[in-house]
């Protein structure tokens, strides 16, 4: 785990993950029974996935991305991971109930998702980042949960050529029934479902300077949710 005595102005610890220095590790897969429970849960609250982006080569954990097409009720693509919860995350002692998680990301209904369109990195980056974020806790022996932010490098660079957003924040999705947020498994373990939202540098800095609640106030005031909007305003540009 990448430990640090560095703290932001708001008192939040900052972890700086070093480049991986380890050999390729055998992959842990989600057990069929565990996977089926997640898929059934997602089918109920998100809709049935039309397709799955399967990993051909996996290191440590095998991450798949399931794609739920837009519907009149949910007029946007919903992508969710399976495989992140194949292993427990290294949570602090006071957060052991958050050891297992999967991630969600929502894309506008016109987002290019055909195979030939995904050869363009400006179309593929949401899928790549879902996999990257899902694997991060296991690669670095750490954890992801509500309110955590992950920049694209240090210093943070734009996630793609089609956006200036340069980091992600992990939050509970807003556009779902609250019962979707957690899934109790038969063995007493709980899988938590989080959305990852791209954010601007000023929003990342606002959170580090003033705390999570201050950033969430900005999001609420400007109606920011988990549906990706490349043209959304920077809620902290003038703060």
From TrEMBL:
Residues 60-232 form the Suppressor of fused-like domain. It comes from the Bacteria. InterPro entries: SUFU-like_domain, SUFU_N. Pfam families: SUFU. This is Suppressor of fused domain protein. It comes from Paenibacillus barcinonensis.
């Amino acid at each position: 785990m990448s430990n640090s005595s560095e703290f932001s102005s708001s008192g939040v610890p900052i972890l700086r993950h070093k480049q991986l220095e380890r050999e390729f590790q055998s992959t842990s897969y989600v057990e069929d029974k565990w996977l089926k429970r997640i898929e059934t849960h997602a089918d109920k609250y998100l809709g049935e996935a039309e397709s799955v982006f399967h990993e051909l080569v996996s290191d440590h954990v095998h991450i798949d991305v399931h794609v739920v097409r837009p519907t009149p009720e949910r007029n946007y693509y919903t992508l969710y991971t399976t495989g992140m919860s194949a292993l427990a995350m290294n949570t602090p002692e006071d957060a052991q109930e958050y050891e297992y998680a999967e991630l969600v990301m929502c894309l506008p209904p016109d987002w290019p998702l055909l195979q030939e369109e995904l050869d363009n990195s400006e179309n593929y980056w949401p899928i790549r980042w879902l996999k990257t974020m899902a694997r991060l806790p296991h690669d670095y022996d750490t954890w992801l949960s509500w309110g955590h932010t992950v920049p694209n490098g240090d210093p943070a660079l734009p996630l793609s050529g089609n956006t200036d957003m340069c980091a992600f924040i992990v939050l509970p999705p807003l556009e779902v029934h609250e019962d979707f947020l957690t899934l109790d498994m038969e063995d007493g373990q709980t899988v938590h479902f989080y959305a990852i939202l791209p954010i601007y540098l000023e929003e990342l800095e606002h959170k580090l300077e003033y705390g999570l609640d201050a950033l969430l106030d900005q999001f609420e005031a400007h109606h920011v949710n988990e549906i990706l909007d490349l043209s959304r305003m920077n809620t902290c540009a003038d703060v």
